[in-house]
Automatic annotation (TrEMBL):
This is Peptidase A24A domain protein. Residues 207-309 form the Peptidase A24A-predicted C-terminal archaea domain. GO terms for cellular component: membrane. Residues 10-109 form the Prepilin type IV endopeptidase peptidase domain.
Length: 342
């Protein structure tokens, strides 16, 4: 067994331990990251010379940027791994395997909440998606028959707007949901009326693809409009690092709480960056790093003084990050050892 393979195995074990602690405590022991960094710098310098050191510092700069709003404690693992991936091509001195690892990890982290939203709201999402697919496919056929230009663009814009509308207007949602029962009728009707169109466009497969596409779009829209998986937590039990879904406005040491979706939080964040607080003395909202100690103490003090309108605040459910890094790490090693592509 060569040195590099041995180092990869050691890092796998360390990531496994870090994943366990991240799941249990939402914390990554500094000793693990320091030990990982120490081993990887020594092995990287021995195997790749100055390339390992340059890769380390280049990845460190990238991770400092990623750490703003993402939770800087997690992304330091990428920096620790960089020296042992300094063997191949690089982009701005950052090893391509590290960039791939970051991409895989971030993609899995983004996908996991969407899966949870689907599990929680599938009874509302699936009928709506099937109904929209029937509507979209029917109009697509009619537009095809009458050669209407830009049909696909017009229909996709309408479908996306419909998803937003169906979340706000109950009768419209019910109408779209009822269309879902016509899915087999639509497919059978097109097959009987225009078999050439059905076969040429592989309509059955196309319909399945539409369902998958619209399901993904619906999940993203659900997330953008504030349908995160969230929990209530007593103010007295809040801790540093908790990520609030609520926005807390404070004026004259009296709190006001607003349950806000992603767009609202983004708008307030931009206003705060420009120094706009309106009539309020302070606005508390959290980014990826969560609640700061000073804000936590302020909230708990106001609650003790009876100046908060609620006893609980809504938190966005967070997920351990290191297990996704571990999965990405294994994928990168498989691509390296078995497929020889990186």
């Amino acid at each position: 067994m060569d040195i590099l393979t041995l180092v990869y195995i050691i890092n796998f074990i360390l990531l496994l331990i870090a994943s366990y602690t991240d799941i249990k405590t939402r914390e990554i022991p500094h000793t693990i990251v320091i030990f990982m960094l120490f081993i990887n710098l020594l092995a990287g310098y021995y195997l790749f010379g100055l390339d390992a050191i340059i890769s380390f510092f280049a990845t460190l700069i990238l991770c400092l940027i990623l750490g703003i709003g993402m939770g800087g404690g997690d992304v330091k693992i990428f920096t620790a791994l960089a020296p042992i991936f300094a063997y191949g091509d690089k982009i701005f001195y950052i090893p391509k395997p590290i960039l791939l690892l970051i991409g895989i990890s971030a993609g899995l982290v983004a996908l996991y909440p969407l899966i949870n939203i689907l599990r929680k709201y599938w009874r509302g999402i699936i009928p709506s998606v099937l109904g929209l697919c029937v509507f979209y496919s029917t109009l697509s056929y009619l537009f095809y028959r009458y050669k209407i230009p830009y049909a696909s663009l017009i229909l996709w814009i309408y479908v996306i707007i419909s998803i937003f509308i169906s979340r706000k207007i109950p009768w419209y949602r019910e109408l779209i949901n009822k269309l879902s029962y016509l899915a087999p009728v639509y497919l059978l009707a097109i097959y009987l009326l225009d078999r050439d169109y059905f076969i040429r466009n592989n309509l059955l497969l196309s319909f399945v693809v539409y369902v998958l596409e619209l399901t993904l779009i619906s999940l993203v829209i659900y997330a953008l409009t504030g349908t995160e998986v969230s929990v209530k937590k007593p103010i007295s039990q809040l801790k540093e690092g908790d990520i609030l879904r609520d926005i807390v406005y404070i004026k004259d040491r009296v709190g006001k709480v607003e349950n806000a979706g992603l767009w609202k939080r983004f708008k307030i964040m931009l206003e705060l960056e420009m120094g706009k607080k309106g009539d309020y003395d302070k606005i508390i909202m959290t980014d990826g790093d969560g609640l700061r100690e000073e804000d936590l103490k302020l909230l708990q003090n106001l609650h003790k003084e009876g100046k908060m309108p609620v006893d609980e605040l809504t938190l966005i459910t967070t997920y351990p990050f290191v297990p996704f890094v571990l999965i990405g790490y294994v994928i990168v090693l498989i691509l390296h050892y078995y497929f020889k592509v990186i």
